[in-house]
Backbone:
């Protein structure tokens, strides 16, 4: 049977597993549970192919080999006009799905360096396009960046689609990058990412696939090791099997961006709250060590007393550091 139909079957099994509504449960859904696929994409049947081939479309090498873009990025309406930038509601096409988001365009003459701001887990039932990460998008627009904040598939009014191990979200970002390069107000040689939590994990996958991204900020990011993510999920659930644990070790290794860091070309800036009780700070420290060992451009900041999402003076310091980092590498 086609790979996509099997993945759809796995998605439905994942959604059937319920968890308590806590911070850890939110990241559980963010790290492991996939969204329902669109029913009209075809009948869902049980898998019958060899397991070693079922997840091939999720492999980093497969993501590198396929094409992105197609369709267009369209402005729907103006949401706000400020002294520094104009915010517009946008839609774009990602693998046939209509995905929504917003774009902050600085005042002045472009083209501008581009930053895609990638949000973490937000309950899709209550998600709104102007999410908690809007403040980061606004700060970067005031600093002269063209900022796009995608909702991802299945969020808000964006159409839903396959998303095992959050690879669908990464595909949404990879398609967006291809479309952004065509915008007259965008500088195609200067594209960066800022991802928080789940968004940080998405950003890590994207820079393992796409060498055109020049800089990436990983903020309280999920692990690039999908087995580590699944182990944490199982701990949060108090034990019990998870469907993704049926993926063979070899397949999981080929899906996990942690095994492809040698190919990363982007400069990386890592930020983590020392009191993060949701995503282990040790994951960020380990990523820093791996990148340093490979001779990659990486900086690392631990924030004393800060939780998973920064607050107060720690958040203000984070914004200053991120703005400086992205200005260095994109302007």
Residues:
């Amino acid at each position: 049977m086609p790979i996509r139909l099997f993945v759809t079957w796995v998605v439905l099994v994942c959604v059937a597993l319920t968890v308590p509504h806590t911070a850890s449960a939110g990241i559980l859904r963010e790290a492991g549970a996939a969204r329902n696929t669109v029913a009209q994409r075809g009948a869902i049947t049980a898998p019958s192919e060899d397991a070693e081939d079922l997840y091939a479309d999720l492999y980093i090498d497969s993501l590198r080999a396929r094409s992105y873009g197609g369709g267009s990025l369209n402005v729907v309406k103006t949401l706000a006009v400020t002294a520094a930038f104009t915010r517009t509601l946008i839609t774009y096409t990602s693998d046939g799905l209509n995905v929504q988001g917003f774009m902050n365009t600085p005042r002045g003459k472009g083209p501008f360096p581009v930053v895609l701001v990638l949000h973490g887990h937000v309950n899709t039932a209550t998600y709104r396009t102007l999410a908690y990460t809007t403040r980061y998008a606004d700060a970067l627009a005031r600093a002269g960046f063209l900022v796009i904040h995608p909702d991802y598939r299945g969020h808000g009014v964006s159409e839903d689609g396959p998303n095992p191990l959050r690879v669908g979200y990464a595909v949404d970002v990879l398609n967006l990058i291809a479309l952004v390069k065509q915008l007259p107000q965008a500088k195609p040689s200067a594209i960066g990412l800022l991802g928080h939590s789940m968004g940080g994990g998405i950003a890590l996958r994207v820079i393992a696939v796409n060498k055109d991204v020049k800089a990436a900020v990983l903020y309280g990011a999920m692990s690039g090791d999908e087995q580590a993510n699944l182990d944490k999920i199982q701990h949060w659930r108090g034990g019990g099997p998870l469907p993704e644990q049926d993926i063979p070790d070899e397949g999981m290794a080929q899906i996990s961006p942690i095994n492809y860091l040698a190919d990363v070309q982007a400069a990386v800036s890592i930020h983590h709250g020392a009191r993060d009780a949701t995503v282990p700070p040790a994951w960020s420290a380990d990523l820093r060590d791996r990148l340093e060992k490979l001779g990659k451009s990486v900086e690392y900041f631990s924030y004393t007393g800060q939780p998973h999402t920064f607050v107060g003076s720690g958040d203000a310091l984070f914004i200053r550091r991120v703005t400086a980092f992205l200005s260095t590498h994109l302007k």
Remarks:
- The radius of gyration is 19 Å.
- The chain has one domain: 3-330.
